[in-house]
Amino acid sequence: MPKERLTREQIAERAAQELPDGAYVNLGFGIPNLMSNYVLADKTIYFHSENGILGMGPRAKAGEEDYDLVDAMKMPVTVIPGAAFFNQAEAHTMTRGGHLDVAVLGAFQVSEKGDIANWKVPGAKGSGGIGGAMDIAVGALRLIVCMEHNAKDGAPKVVKECSYPLTAIECVKTVITDLAVLDVTPQGLVLREVAPGFTPAEVQECTGAKLLVRGSVPEMKLGGPLG
Amino acid sequence: MPKERLTREQIAERAAQELPDGAYVNLGFGIPNLMSNYVLADKTIYFHSENGILGMGPRAKAGEEDYDLVDAMKMPVTVIPGAAFFNQAEAHTMTRGGHLDVAVLGAFQVSEKGDIANWKVPGAKGSGGIGGAMDIAVGALRLIVCMEHNAKDGAPKVVKECSYPLTAIECVKTVITDLAVLDVTPQGLVLREVAPGFTPAEVQECTGAKLLVRGSVPEMKLGGPLG
Amino acid sequence: MKNKIYASVDEIVADVPDGASILFGGFGGAGFPNNLIRAIARKGTRNLTAISNNCGSGENELGILFKNKQIRKVHASFPGPTANYFQECYAAGEIELELMAQGVLCERLRAQAAGLPAFFTTVGVGTEVARGKEERVIGGKRCILETALGADFAFVKAWKADRIGNLVYRKAARNFNPLMAAAAKTTIVEVDEIVEVGALDPEVIITPSIFVDRMVRVKGR
Amino acid sequence: MKNKIYASVDEIVADVPDGASILFGGFGGAGFPNNLIRAIARKGTRNLTAISNNCGSGENELGILFKNKQIRKVHASFPGPTANYFQECYAAGEIELELMAQGVLCERLRAQAAGLPAFFTTVGVGTEVARGKEERVIGGKRCILETALGADFAFVKAWKADRIGNLVYRKAARNFNPLMAAAAKTTIVEVDEIVEVGALDPEVIITPSIFVDRMVRVKGR
After folding, report:
1. Which residues lie below 8 Å from residue A169, measured CB to CB, with a gap of 6+?
2. What CATH number is associated with residue A128?
3. φ and ψ of D38, to 5 deg
4. What is the residue range of A35's domain?
5. Are the C-beta atoms of residues A190 and A217 closer than 8 Å to each other?
6. Residue at A222 is within a domain
7. B39, B40, B44, B90: best to mutate for the C interface, most C CBs within 10 A
8. A168 near C122, Cβ under 8 Å?
């Protein structure tokens, strides 16, 4: 049986394990947005949306949409008890000012120093758009990136230096991919976990930066709601 | 009958005539604080307090005081219909950001360029205190100063250059005293009105800066509620 | 007392001149002053500078103004992939665009509202948006200098107003609206309902009336 | 889930160390966290840095901490003529004082809360407070540079809280409290009433729970 990389859902599941009970958390576009499905029932997480919501609940059910209550992706959502509404500057007081316990973003590239590139593909058509990513990346107390370990053409997305336009420098603390969990440390990238069935050497081979291996590297534990 | 300078109440009465209907107004300590008694019944003025009130009404009656509803002078006040509460930073967004139509401050000195000194007496004991005066002076769309024309020792308070520590520079538009109404213009101080019975020459004699007299100078019109 | 209430959206924007700069509230489909935008589209005002997080979705929101070629310059955070009329104008070189981080857009508006000419931020350091901007280290952090951003007009969508212009918003339709209401020379509000003075609790007013110049009651988004 | 509610004011300040910096809400007698202040007085914590608009009135508000010589340094806007214990310490040279404009104090706190290391303001230009500060002309206006100001702790007085720390204030007792709640490493709130989660309307919450670390219910001012 060929070894399989994690699905996007499984990356989200593993990332959700990083959220401590009671945390204030912002989830970005893409894989991070799937994470709320994997928060265990014994935890309460306060999800923040940069358009002015703290305490977002699940997406609104069909027929119950309120288009004045949307998340940063324009999707109708709900709120949980204890939610609060505020203006967009206050929402970014929370991001930039170091009030979010955790933020999780998708990315095109992450460097070994924790630089992140996630807003613009070089040479892409159109204006591009930044949105809230720069503010969130700079300000979150702990920034996690969820992404595939490699691009569609196989190019490593964990790299020595980002070649894509940067979103923010030296801010990523942890990278969770379909192959590994990596921590950005002053010494470099530490391989904390590998995907089930993969070896540290195999992960290193798919990575564009040197990985530090400290002792034996455990496999990610999966098997949540969809496991 | 010897000519009499205006009382503090009369200065306040004359100054209240400068407030247009519907104006958003901050009144400082001292004579300005008396002005609300002289706003004619056909005008609505929204009084601002830098501790977070817009739409202040009269002082609270005895026995009806609410010590969570005080003005910038710590006095229990009331609010009128249409009032709003907000935090102190938003209160100063209103002062500094050019949103107050009129602010009226007391002063120790005003210079012919519109500099104002109102927070500290040179050589006085104690720490002194600035409060909201600097923010209000800098930001109000129209800054009026109400004060006696001369200090107790007779020294002019309208001067060429302030010798007292400054509150803000080049911001006073109009000075209303017990002797005159003066407008600060790019050409200098224009004598707009004199107190009843006084001549421009007499006002000039009591003033520490050159007054410009354009044609005949009318007398202030008084005779409001207490007139 | 000055009446801030206008009878129609066309009247309320009648004096917006060619070349005006306008702040547009709204984010993610919520809180856009669509009725005012359509009034400006009907009026045909040209050479506008638009400050808005997004640049429309098809003909919706700001889309119609790009379709009509009424906008010459844009300050935005996320024009958006569905802003096809904007993207066409942009590709054709017809539009000058300043792109910035969303929180920086918020703070530049607030700085204008609060009379703060400029501020240092850590957001954008080391990225394209830092190009040409002054950089320095403050408290051990690399920062860049950003300046206040205001406009001639703000177009704001509120939920309820009282007759003197105190505003409340609804849920996430608040977003940029209170910031923009405070950052323009003339603030124009479309609102679902206008209530009597005193009907709004002073504790819950989000935009105090001092920031509002004109209001019009509208039906529908 | 982490419990933010403490049983007593003495417990809630138990770990405030000598040398700590503390933001104190309140203005003009309203909104002072008097019960927390008295707890610190009982505890006898020394060498404090206090950031507060006022410096007490007799033994009230911050007064007791000056009477007890617990404060070494003050950042204030208007210490106040009735702050006699502060004035005595100040006259005796026992206290270092930074005096600033009230709106500048507000913005320095907000800058800290919002992660903005510094800003330019027109307030103070040409006055004593501009001494030693960088000055430049921006957009034709003379400005001086002011930096963010935060602290280890904020002592906040709120009216109602829900059990996760969303806060509302009462009338003009709001004043500096929401600014300070957001500008400290650890925010400690004394509150008249703690209600169930969900009992406060999300539209009217002034301080969202993200800014609140600890709460204690108190009786009396």
Report:
1. A113, A114, A115, C125, C126, C127
2. 3.40.1080.10
3. -65, -30
4. 8-212
5. no
6. no
7. B90
8. no
Distance CA D189, CA D202 (A): 19
Residue spans in chain C of domains classed CATH 3.40.1080.10 = 18-99+150-217
The position carrying tokens 């994997």 is A38
Which of A74, A127, A161, A170 to mutate: most C Cβ within 10 Å?
A127
Q: What radius of gyration, in Å, describes the C-alpha atoms of chain D?
A: 18
Please indicate, yes or no, if residue B225 is contained in any of the structural domains.
no
Cβ–Cβ under 8 Å, residues B29 and B73: yes
Pick the CATH number of C18-99+150-217 from 3.60.140.10, 1.10.220.30, 3.40.1080.10, 3.40.366.10: 3.40.1080.10
pLDDT digits (tens), chain A, 227 positions = 568 999 999 999 999 999 999 999 999 999 999 999 999 989 999 999 999 999 999 999 999 999 999 999 999 999 999 999 999 999 999 999 999 999 999 999 999 999 999 999 998 889 999 999 999 999 999 999 999 999 999 999 999 999 999 999 999 999 999 999 999 999 999 999 999 999 999 999 999 999 999 999 999 999 854 43
Query: Helices (DSSP H) in C102-210: which residue ranges?
Result: 102-113, 177-181
List pLDDT tens digits, range D68-114.
Answer: 999 999 999 999 989 999 999 999 999 999 999 999 999 999 999 99
Q: Which of B9, B13, B18, B50 does the annotation list as catalytic?
A: B50
Has residue A122 been placed in a domain? yes
Least Cα distance to C72 among C53, C54, C90 occurs for C90
Contacts by residues A210-219 (CB-CB < 8 Å, ≥ 24 positions apart): A210/A112, A210/A160, A211/A180, A211/A182, A212/A185, A212/A187, A212/A188, A214/A190, A217/A191, A217/A192, A217/A193, A218/A193, A218/A194, A219/A193, A219/A194, A219/A195
Name the domain count of chain B. 1
C-alpha distances in Å from residue B87, one per residue of B49, B126, D9, D175, D178? 11, 29, 25, 5, 7
Backbone angles phi, psi at A33, to 5 degrees: -65, -20
Q: How far away is chain C from the Cα of A138, in angstroms, using its nearest Cα?
A: 6
CB A151 within 8 A of CB A159: no
Q: Look at D121 and C141 and tell me if their CB atoms are within 8 Å.
A: no
CA distances from A11 to A15, A181, A201 (A): 6, 10, 20
CB B156 within 8 A of CB B150: yes
* Pairwise CB contact (< 8 Å): B132 & D99: no
| Three-state secondary structure call for residue A88 | helix
* Tokens linked to C73: 């310059």
B32 at interface of D, judged by CB pairs closer than 8 A: no
For chain B, percent helix, then strand, then coil, each to nearest 5?
15, 30, 55
How far apart CA A150 and CA C26 sit, in angstroms, is 36
Per CB-CB distance under 8 Å, the chain B contacts of D31 are: 68
- From chain D residues 135-194, the ones with a CB under 8 A of any chain A CB are 162, 164, 166, 182
Distance CA A163, CA A157 (A): 10
Buried b (16+ CB within 10 A) or exposed e, D57-67: bebebbbbbbb
> How buried is A202 (Cβ within 10 angstroms: 0-12 exposed, 13-18 middle, 19+ buried)?
middle
- C-beta of residue A156 within 8 angstroms of C-beta of residue A207: yes
What torsion, rounded to 10 degrees, do the Cα atoms C72, C76, C78, C81 define?
0
B219 annotated active-site = no
Write the ipTM: 0.97
Whether the Cβ atoms of residue D147 and residue D118 lie closer than 8 Å to each other: yes
Rounded to whole angstroms, how far apart are CA atoms D182 and D94? Answer: 30
Residue B223 lies in a domain: no
Total-model pTM: 0.98
User: CA A50 to CA C105: how far, in whole Å?
Assistant: 13
Cα D83 to Cα D28: distance, rounded to the nearest angstrom: 12
> What CA–CA distances, in Å, run from D133 to B170, D125, D145, D147?
20, 10, 6, 10
